[in-house]
Design goal:
By secondary structure, this protein is an all-alpha fold. The protein has seven helices and no strands.
Length: about 160
């Protein structure tokens, strides 16, 4: 086991040998986008040289990068996605014995403005329930279950 492997070399190894059997194609495609964002900055570091400050500097720099399509700064969701991909890659490196700990853990802090979620009041929920009673049983059941339990869409879709 080569503990002097760089992040770039390990990422290449992971994409070639680990990821295809572990990740869905869409996840792999998203990971490649994230990898393209962090490899130019961190790829030259040996895995054992990576420190929390390297990740914090990366995230700070990413927040200043402009989105090529919109011209606006990258969204905080994009920065968080890069962090998640890095954490996953470094966790795999831990499992493979290349690292003793994951240096990216607890290095990401949300920098955007917290947005208050808009929640329907009682009257709006009652109107929605009344409207649903005129729809097919399938949709009526689905949305009433979400309204009643607070279940997320994916959780409800997973029910059988």
């Amino acid at each position: 086991m080569d503990r002097s492997i760089t992040l770039a070399k390990y990422t290449e190894l992971r994409l070639r040998e680990i990821a295809p059997g572990k990740l869905d194609k869409s996840t792999l495609a998203r990971d490649r986008q994230d990898i393209d964002r962090f490899l130019p900055v961190l790829g030259h570091y040996k895995l054992t040289e990576l420190r929390p400050e390297h990740f914090r500097q990366l995230y700070s720099g990413l927040r200043k990068v402009k989105n090529q399509r919109t011209g606006k700064p990258l969204s905080e969701c994009t920065v968080e996605g890069v962090h998640a991909t890095l954490c996953t890659i470094l966790s795999d490196a831990m499992e493979g014995g290349f690292l003793d700990h994951n240096p990216a853990w607890r290095t990401y802090h949300y920098a955007g403005e917290k947005k208050e979620k808009v929640i329907a009041d009682e009257a709006t929920a009652q109107r929605l329930i009344a409207i649903l009673e005129e729809e097919s049983l399938k949709y009526e059941t689905y949305f009433k279950l979400i309204i009643t339990t607070g279940m997320r869409r994916g959780e409800c879709c997973g029910l059988q």
